[in-house]
Specification:
This protein has a single domain, classed as Calycin beta-barrel core domain (Lipocalin, Beta Barrel). The protein is mainly β. It holds the Pfam family MoaF_like.
């Protein structure tokens, strides 16, 4: 049985910053991100996530990467939109953490890359 409605789903994200990802929502609160930008040569990692669901198809998905990068996505599945807030180590910023925000499109896809129109 699924632990959250995104489990088993795949998404394509294209941020206004130029970052692009395939996101696989896996079992046991796991997420695999894979960069789809050519210059990142398929960089990928597996993360343990915290996920909350809100009314209207809104989700908050948060994780901390091994590098210390903290990532928080607010995903609006109904409007195919995602906003990200990240922080990473930078001693020149308050608290030693630099914030970075970006937003973009969020689309569910099938394994073959075609649109996944199956309702949540």
């Amino acid at each position: 049985m699924k632990k959250h409605p995104l489990e088993g789903k795949i998404a394509n994200i294209q941020f206004d910053s130029g970052l692009q990802f395939r996101i696989d929502f896996l079992e046991d609160q796991q997420l695999r991100w894979t960069s789809t930008r050519k210059e990142d040569a398929g960089a990928t990692d597996l993360e343990t996530i915290h996920i909350e669901e809100y009314p209207g198809g809104i989700f908050s998905v948060d994780w901390v990467e091994a590098s210390g990068l903290c990532v928080s996505y607010t995903i609006d599945t109904a409007n195919q939109f995602v906003k990200s807030f990240m922080t990473f180590t930078d001693p020149t910023y308050r608290g030693g953490r630099r914030p970075f925000t970006h937003e973009g499109t969020f689309h569910f896809i099938l394994e073959n890359g075609q649109a996944d129109l199956t309702p949540l």
